[in-house]
Amino acid sequence: MVKNNLNEFEVIRTYFARQPLARPDVVLGIGDDAAVLEVPAGRQLVVSTDLLIAGVHFPENTAPAAIGHKALAVNLSDLAAMGATPAWFTLNLSLPQADPAWLDGFCRGLFALAGTYNVQLVGGDTARGPLTIGIQICGLVPSGQALTRAGARPGDRIYVTGTLGDAALGLLCVQGKIELPAAQRAQVFERLNFPLPRVAAGERLRGLASACIDISDGISADLGHVLEASGVGARIELPRLPVSPAYAGAFATLGWAPALAHGDDYELCFTIPASREPAFRRVSGELGVACSYVGDIEAEPGLRIVDEHGRDYRPPAAGYDHFRADQRS
Q: For 239, which DSSP code?
């Protein structure tokens, strides 16, 4: 019989301490007051954290395996944007109850992705409360080679990986706001629930990209962060934005807004100086994902978006913002 009244320490021992990964640089992991980790010589530590809340970052009825996957994926995406190689993470988990079936599914999604990227859980905390997942992730990058938001310069070309807007379509389907054929629904649900962090692309862009950011809140908002940090402007062309066949089929109803501003894409947006363009083209096939040129960095501040006729386009929203009244759950 499955025990349904697990205490905090039983949850940790049963579901998190016995994980299927043990890195040699973890001197001391789960089970003590803190982890002890070896940072190799010539490497810098890159640290990021994200918080996922039921009903805000994912629908309440999302499958636990998808929640486990996405909680780690969004953090891996931050490391990808910095050009870092994943190493370790901690997990803070608030649960309404210690449900073994839910925990089994959550751990299955979490540790499957952790194994893919050789990133080990080394500690954390559990508590009773609303379903909330907080992950802090650590990665390694050769000293002085981290990608940042602050290096873009006029004349640099702007690229994005993958396609934009599919996660937004998935959420709109969940909310009953659009209908898609079954096969396309499955594709956009996969993008919404199981995003693929572009870790290999981020690592390969070290020394090539002048600036990089992951697209979590929509390209119009996230590229805006690059422009602000770099003190430049940009012009992007709508016809160049990469979208999937599912998005193209729904375009007449949705227009460009989901691809520009709805977020949850977890693709990379990066800039390549003209002097590095030949080198980038030579290695672009090694990034593990297609890359699309979407515009250029300019000296004049601000983001300009133009349509297929060169006319200015203003998106209906600037990007996801947790504290905007119409985006609170």
A: G
